[in-house]
Amino acid sequence: MAASQAPIQGWPEVPLISIPAGWFFMGSDTGQNTVGQDNERPVHRVYVDEFLLAARQVTNAQYAHFLCATGNPPPPFWNDPNFNHPEQPVVAVSWFEAVKYCAWLSMAAGKAFRLPTEAEWERAARGGAVGKLYPWGDAPSQSLPDYDNRWKTGPEPVARYAPNAFGLFDICDNVHEWCSDWYSPDYYAISPEHNPQGPESGERRASRGGSWRHHIKVSRCAARSSIPPQFQYADYGFRVAAEPGHGRQEFRDGRVEKHSGRASETILGFRSMFPSLQDSSAAIQPELTSGESIQWAGRPNPRNTFHKEDIFLIPFSLLWGGFAIYWEAGVAGYWGSSGNHTGNQWTFGMIWGIPFVLVGQYLIWGRFIYAAWKKKRTYYAVTSRRVIVVQEGWKRQMASAYLDALPTLTKEGDSRGIGTLRFGQPEPRWSRGGGWGVWDSMSIGSVPIFMDIEDVDSVYRLVSDLREKARTSKTGF
Question: Is the pTM for the entire model greater than 0.85?
Answer without folding.
Answer: no
